[in-house]
Amino acid sequence: MTATTMTAWRKGLAIVLVGLLAPTVGVLASEGAAHVLIPDDAAPQVGDRLAIDIVLDWPSADVTPRFPAWTESWGDAEVLEVGPVERQVLSDGVVSFLQPLVIAAYRPGEIELPPQPIEVTEADGETVTVQTPVTTYTIVSVLPSDAEPTALAPKAAAEPVALDDDWGFGITAAILLAVVLAAGIFAALRRYPVLVDALGRVIGPRLAPLDELLGRLRGLDPQADAERQATRLSLALRTYLGRRLGFPAVESTTSEIRRRLADGLPAPLVHQAVRVLAACDEVKFAQRYVTPADTQARIDDVRAVALEIERHTRIDDESEPAVEAAA
Q1: How many contiguous H segments (helices) and E segments (strands) does the chain have?
Q2: What is the residue-averaged pLDDT of the chain?
Q3: Residue 171: exposed, middle, or buried by beta-carbon count in 10 A (0-12, 13-18, 19+)?
Q4: Helix (H, G, I), strand (E, B) or coil at 250
Q5: Phi, psi of 56, rounded to the nearest 5 degrees
Q6: Cβ distance 130 to 120 under 8 Å?
Q7: 3-state secondary structure of 204
Q8: Is residue 200 scored above 80 in pLDDT?
Q9: Cα separation, 174 vs 309, whole angstroms
Q10: How many whole angstroms separate alpha carbon 327 and alpha carbon 322?
């Protein structure tokens, strides 16, 4: 279905909705009504783009509506695209204003879109505010709801092995010695940080975060097992984000990483990084099928994200001395 057909379909649906609801919701009353139109057959999954329409119906054409100033999020969903407001005169002088949006959500279950104000300035200069209704839709899980764990047959018990007293005592003593030695090394490293620096000099300096990431990306093979490559790609990006921005990204969930990146990085860059992590999660946990070209595209996305983060953080680092000097 082409984009022109989709637009015509949405406009036609808006006209039918106005005709059906006019007797009951008071579209022809002194004030209009706002609706959120979501396709009935929509069954988006995690991260899928969903095209919806915000419709304002007004009983007279001589008005100027001001739709919401959309940010990157709307309730539990993210706003990816905002289209221009379209105007169409319906029957009985009713005018319909329609604004298309593209949204996406990154968790399964019910997604709530809270009310949004639409300010309408009438011909006499009076401004009326109309709220969109609370709207919900469902994100379909990529995991089957009726999946049952596979019953595994219990492993047969191994035959007991008789050890003589001297052998058993030696194993026990070796284990205790190793535990005591490890505890001593750990305590020494915590008490004397200089030992950590010395150990680092012996082992060798670690690459810079970007250099380490680019090296890992060169080691990935899009033609190899997709699940393994997605796991390695996700770990490489998380390791880079943790080292470059100073937070435990490897141990964090994708949602936690999104909140952390939003505190300092531009919204489009945050969305691009989270989209790559979400795509890797779908391959790792839901065994979503991807082609080698898809894997290569995700590798290129990670490289682009890292280079943009380097550019953005470098600008911030260079601006700090100027701010201090001005102070």
Answers
A1: 8, 11
A2: 80
A3: exposed
A4: coil
A5: -120, 120
A6: yes
A7: coil
A8: no
A9: 48
A10: 9
Location of structure tokens 């490289």: 303
Q: How far apart are CA 102 and CA 119, in angstroms?
A: 22
Q: Widest CA span of the chain, in angstroms?
A: 102
Residues paired with 102 in a beta bridge = 51, 81
Residue 45, both tokens: 């999954």
Going across the sheet that includes 63-66, the strands are 63-66, 117-122, 127-131
CA–CA distance, 110 with 49 (Å, rounded to integer):
16
Q: Which residue has the tokens 């990146």?
A: 261
Average pLDDT of the segment spanning 19-40: 61
Question: CA of 210: how far to CAs of 202, 240, 301, in Å?
Answer: 23, 7, 14
Which residues are CB-neighbours of 86 under 8 A, at least 6 positions away?
11, 97, 98, 99, 100
What are the pLDDT digits (tens) for 113-169? 999 999 999 888 899 999 999 999 999 877 665 555 555 667 777 777 665 555 666
Query: Which has more pLDDT, 324 or 80?
Result: 80
Token pair recorded at residue 188 = 């020494």
Going by the DSSP 8-state scheme, the letter that residue 192 receives in this structure is -
| Positive or negative: CA dihedral 268, 269, 274, 279 | positive
